[in-house]
Design goal:
16 helices, alpha/beta, 62% helix, disordered N terminus, single chain, 5 strands, disordered C terminus, globular, five-stranded parallel β-sheet
């Protein structure tokens, strides 16, 4: 039996106003204002699911966009995310958002290594609102612990969330492990691609583009029990060449080799401070991680998109993106005996060259416009 009171439908001026007010609160780290407006909206009759998905979720998306544009610091982004999480918790505890479970049990978890837990938390609360008994396991759930939990419960499905593509190999392992104990897996999150292409590639039982879509999918009927003899090589036969394994295990030595090579390939690095070198090493580690993931998935485009995004992030922070081409060249030299890695790096280099040419033309146009105005 539900204790929820009737609510206004999603959308409309109340939801738009709540989103605007929540953004103002999280952007200045005002936790009391953020939780207060969510509770006030509930009391005024705004639907709890709409508050989760049409207010809190879009505001969190804006937080990420502001960070990418370098208008929010890492600390401010973390603070904003923490406030969004508190707002979700406040909503979940309010009597207007309580629904007795009537539909069965769902385990909601993040992929091992995935720290972006808010999307999974939003899904967990939406499913609770729709009458599911939800076990929310939170961020970074190692597969053995996930399976141990499934053995102790009677989950109808695992909903697995991933935001960062480099966690997809771990997601694949979790999917297969869950299926091996007879529990189907519904996946979602940015890591699986905007169209769910990686969900299909990794053998997930289904995919949803967002929390509302996931809840709607489960409402249509439970996922069928999966086959138990599924093996990773069936999904990704190219892994037999061992390139993914070699690159992933050799990440440390590859980063050191590229750092050393950049002293000659990018002379400006010779003047870098210790902190700048540390940041460069971190960026190179991410590049190798995405290269390894592209090799795992057999998808060159994934790496190309990542390297272009990296160029945009560096540019927004005043860091010269022209350091990326020599880094890719050095990395290609280190991996010259790896045919697939060589192709992935070449695709990334071509995509990056196009981005850098566009940036050069845009900068020249801006200078011309400024000169005319002067």
């Amino acid at each position: 039996m539900s204790t929820r009171t009737p609510h206004r439908p999603s959308g409309g001026a109340a939801v738009r106003q709540a989103a605007d007010e929540l953004w103002e609160a999280v952007s200045v780290c005002d936790e009391y204002a953020a939780t207060g407006l969510v509770l006030r909206a509930l009391e005024e009759g705004v639907d709890p699911e709409s508050l989760l998905l049409d207010v809190i979720a879009p505001v969190q998306g804006r937080v990420g966009a502001e960070w990418a544009a370098n208008r929010l610091s890492v600390a401010a982004e973390h603070a904003a995310t923490a406030i969004s999480e508190r707002a979700v918790a406040a909503l979940a505890l309010h009597p207007a958002a309580r629904t007795a479970p009537t539909r069965g049990r769902v385990t909601v978890a993040c992929v091992d290594g995935e720290w972006h837990a808010l999307p999974a938390r939003l899904l967990a609360e939406v499913l609770r609102l729709r009458g599911w008994h939800v076990d929310y396991l939170g961020a970074q759930v190692p597969s053995p612990h996930l399976i141990a939990h499934l053995h102790r419960t009677d989950a109808a499905v695992v909903a697995l969330s991933g935001s960062i593509a480099t966690r997809l190999p771990a997601a694949h392992a979790a999917i297969i492990a869950c299926q091996a104990v007879g529990v189907p897996v519904l996946v979602g999150g940015a890591a699986f691609g905007p169209d769910g292409r990686y969900a299909r590639l990794l053998g997930a039982d289904d995919w949803a583009p967002d929390a509302r879509g996931a809840a709607d999918r489960l409402a249509r009927g439970r996922l069928p029990r999966p086959r138990r003899d599924h093996q990773p090589i069936e999904d990704l036969p190219h892994l037999a060449d061992q390139e993914y394994t070699m690159v992933a295990r050799g990440k440390g030595s590859l980063v050191r080799a590229v750092l050393a090579g950049l002293e000659d390939g990018f002379p400006a690095m010779r003047a870098y401070s210790a902190l700048q070198r540390e940041h460069t090493a971190e960026d190179l580690a991410h590049i190798v991680d995405f290269l390894a993931t592209a090799l795992y998935l057999g998808d060159e485009e994934l790496f190309a998109l990542f390297i272009c995004w990296t160029a945009e992030i560096l540019t927004a922070r005043g860091v010269p993106a022209r350091s990326l081409p020599p880094a890719l060249d050095i990395l290609a030299g280190e991996l010259k005996d790896f045919p697939r890695a060589t192709r992935v790096l070449a695709r990334g280099t071509d995509a990056l060259a196009s981005v850098l040419r566009s940036d050069t033309r845009r900068t020249a146009a801006d200078r011309t416009t400024t000169g005319r105005q002067a």
